[in-house]
Amino acid sequence: MKNSEHLVVQEGFKVIKMKTRAARLYGANDVRLEEFELRPITSGELLIKIISDSVCMSTHKTIIQGAKHLRVPENVSEHPV
Ligand SMILES: [Zn+2]
């Protein structure tokens, strides 16, 4: 995973803007590897760098079912997860 980050001062606060690369689900059997800008974090949120990850059977089921999966939002094609 390749990350680049830069700091932006916004209204007196340091805002970390970060570009990341991630696999995002758009629908059933539609997972895309994309590079995109993360939205700025807000108070009460943490920005965590993931070193490694894996795919379990529940993730596999989520990919196969897409928006039909109970935990996947119906608008996943416009707002991938
Ligand atoms: Zn799992």
Describe the structure.
The chain is mainly beta and 81 residues long. It has a domain at 4-39 and 51-68. Helix content is 11%, strand content 37%. The chain is built from 1 helix and 3 strands. It has one helix at residues 57-65; strands spanning 4-10, 13-27, 30-37. The protein has a 3-stranded antiparallel β-sheet with strand order 1-2-3. A hairpin with a 2-residue loop joins strand 1 and strand 2. The longest helix is centred in the last third of the chain and has 9 residues, at 57-65. The chain is elongated, with a radius of gyration of 15 Å. The two termini are 18 Å apart. The model has no long low-confidence stretch (mean pLDDT 85). Zinc ion (ZN) binds at residues 56, 58-59.
Which tags fit this structure?
single chain, 81 residues, mainly beta, 11% helix, binds zinc ion
Rg, nearest Å: 15 Å
Provide a count of the helices. 1
Which ligands accompany this protein? zinc ion
How large a portion of the residues is in β-strands, by DSSP E?
35-45%
Strand order of the largest sheet: 1-2-3
Précis, in short:
11% of the residues lie in helices and 37% in strands. It is mostly beta strands and 81 residues long.
Secondary-structure blueprint of this entry?
Blueprint: E1 4-10, E2 13-27, E3 30-37, H1 57-65
Antiparallel strand pairs: 1-2, 2-3
The structure holds zinc ion.
